[in-house]
């Protein structure tokens, strides 16, 4: 195995970790509009991800940095060709991050409602656009002989990519519902369990169609195995949710995301960005898009030293904040006031 193959696997693992962890963050953010009935319940939901959401985003930053260092051609083509959707994702993530801190700084209904909208849209938009982006990478885009993207923004909004966006949105929402049930107690826990069943069935149907479409486009033996496992784990998560076994349901929904993303990367290899114009000559592969062997070697040593430290720290964080949260543990907020009107 060459180092560029190893780093393709490493980047796939980073994205899998990001979607596993940030997936339930996005889901909880979306569900604040549907599961929470009042301010205290909304604060309960936000507190379930409050200690961990920023650590989960480190996986995205690391995946982007690893792509830049290991596959600079891929990074350049991706971030120039997908500039608009990636910019929208970054803006949404920034506003969501600000909203987590700022919603408690004011005491008016309008102030909280505006930041709650930022949390909702800052979760929904990336959850949808990440699916659109990765579906386009797997499907292929218009690259010329210089590996430059020559398509338009509207070319990215094709049926396959839009379905991919809907699938990630629904799948992350299911993951978030299961996580909410796992981390809360009382009425909101029961509500999350009920909601997870319906959204889980929708996720299973949509993901099944999308994965089948992917296999018809690009597939081999391992890709088929990964797709089947994704569907099996998702169906198992729904069945376990019916029995109110939140821990198992969360693990299984996470494994469904793991194997769904693995399906995309397996179907992509050895390409990192296929071209729909003369695929054999214009596409970016793990070989022609990679850095030098020396660069990849240095990166391998650095990753081997620091990755265990990061994993230990993040695991410790989840252990510390492992207990359920009940609405009775949330102190009553100061009475909301309405801005004076003339």
TrEMBL record:
InterPro entries, from UniProt?
Answer: Cyt-d_oxidase_su2
**Topology within the bilayer:** Multi-pass membrane protein
Question: What biological process terms from GO does the record include?
Answer: aerobic electron transport chain
Keywords (alphabetical) are: Cell membrane, Electron transport, Heme, Iron, Membrane, Metal-binding, Transmembrane, Transmembrane helix, Transport
Subcellular locations according to the entry: Cell membrane
Q: State where it is primarily located.
A: membrane
Taxonomic superkingdom: Bacteria
TM ranges: 6-36, 57-76, 82-99, 119-140, 160-182, 194-216, 222-242, 249-272, 298-321
Gene Ontology cellular component terms for the protein in this record: cytochrome complex; plasma membrane
Q: Name one GO molecular function term.
A: oxidoreductase activity, acting on diphenols and related substances as donors, oxygen as acceptor
Cited PANTHER family: CYTOCHROME BD-I UBIQUINOL OXIDASE SUBUNIT 2, CYTOCHROME BD2 SUBUNIT II
UniProt similarity note:
Belongs to the cytochrome ubiquinol oxidase subunit 2 family.
Q: What is this protein's record name? A: Cytochrome bd-I ubiquinol oxidase subunit 2 apoprotein
**Organism for this UniProt entry:** Actinocorallia herbida
Q: What are the top taxonomic ranks of the organism?
A: Bacteria, Bacillati, Actinomycetota, Actinomycetes, Streptosporangiales
